[in-house]
Amino acid sequence: MFANFQNEILLAARLLLGGAFVFAGLRNIRNRAFLTQLMTERGVPQAGLALWLGILLQVVAGGLIVAGVWAALGAACLILFLVVATIMFDNFWDHQGPERAARINGFVANVALAGGFLALMAQPL
User: Which of 52, 71, 105, 120 is 20 to 30 A (C-alpha) from 63?
Assistant: First the structure.
């Protein structure tokens, strides 16, 4: 049944996955002071520069996925982004109680997103 809509489903997947990262990157511009401070506290060298590089990566790679241009490359870049961001922000191993549960949820969500990007990379575009 869904085979008849494979192209439409793939377009929806690209819009949802890539669009979420374009949105998140643009949102992070507004939150850059808070995020830079948080990254500095986590020991990230050149936190401001690292944040801007992360924002650029989110927006450009997400845009590639949305446009369907070099989508596999965009997906691979966002998997790398997710690995780094997960280590940096979803460090559940450093927390207890409700904070630990929240961090575990973020970790699991990022793992699921990476799985979605891997599935996207497996599709012929």
Answer: 105
Rounded CA separation 100/53 (Å): 28
User: In the chain, how long is the greatest CA-to-CA distance?
Assistant: 51
Alpha-carbon dihedral sign for residues 98, 102, 103, 108: positive
> Cα(56)–Cα(81) distance, rounded to whole angstroms?
11
| Angle (CA) 27 21 62, round 5° | 130
User: Residues 32, 69: contact at Cβ < 8 Å?
Assistant: no
pLDDT tens sequence for the chain (125 residues): 677 888 899 999 999 999 999 999 999 999 999 999 999 998 999 999 999 999 999 999 999 999 999 999 999 999 999 999 998 888 888 889 998 899 899 999 999 999 999 999 998 76
Coil, strand, or helix at residue 91? coil
Token pair 């070099």 is at which residue?
70
The DSSP line for 2-18 is GGGGHHHHHHHHHHHHH
Q: CA 52, CA 120: separation in Å to the nearest integer?
A: 26
